[in-house]
């Protein structure tokens, strides 16, 4: 899944929280799987289809560009 906007990526809603997903998680369409912060506004990243997340390519605080791949996924 690719980024739809540039910003800073986060795997969790707050530093004390568990990540939204881990590798191996099966997600449903529309499920929140991360956040991108743009100008102090947090935008939820939603799964665009049901799939299994095989790899998360970014860590908390990594900068992301439009079109950059954030997750590797497999169809279920």
UniProtKB/TrEMBL annotation:
Listed under GO biological process in this entry are: fatty acid biosynthetic process
- List the PROSITE patterns: BIOTIN, BIOTINYL_LIPOYL
Q: Is Lipid biosynthesis among this UniProt entry's keywords?
A: yes
The reply on keyword DNA-binding is no
Span of the signal peptide: none
**Where do the record's region annotations for Disordered lie?**
1-24
* Keywords per UniProt: Biotin, Fatty acid biosynthesis, Fatty acid metabolism, Lipid biosynthesis, Lipid metabolism
Q: In which pathway does it act?
A: Lipid metabolism; fatty acid biosynthesis
Give the record's GO CC terms.
acetyl-CoA carboxylase complex
What Pfam families has UniProt attached to this entry?
Answer: Biotin_lipoyl
Q: Which Gene Ontology MF annotations are present? A: acetyl-CoA carboxylase activity
Domain Lipoyl-binding: residue ranges: 1-74
Matching PANTHER family, A to Z? OXALOACETATE DECARBOXYLASE ALPHA CHAIN
Function of this protein?
Answer: This protein is a component of the acetyl coenzyme A carboxylase complex; first, biotin carboxylase catalyzes the carboxylation of the carrier protein and then the transcarboxylase transfers the carboxyl group to form malonyl-CoA.
Q: Kindly give the NCBIfam families that the UniProt entry links to this protein.
A: PRK07051.1
What is the name of the protein in this document?
Answer: Biotin carboxyl carrier protein of acetyl-CoA carboxylase
Q: What is the lineage of its organism?
A: Bacteria, Bacillati, Actinomycetota, Actinomycetes, Pseudonocardiales
């Amino acid at each position: 899944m690719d980024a739809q906007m540039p910003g800073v990526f986060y795997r969790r809603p707050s530093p004390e929280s568990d990540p939204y997903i881990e590798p191996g998680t099966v997600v449903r369409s529309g499920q929140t799987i991360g956040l991108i912060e743009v100008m102090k506004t947090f935008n939820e990243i939603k799964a665009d289809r049901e799939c299994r997340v095989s790899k998360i390519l970014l860590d908390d605080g990594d900068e992301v560009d439009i079109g950059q791949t954030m997750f590797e996924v497999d169809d279920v």
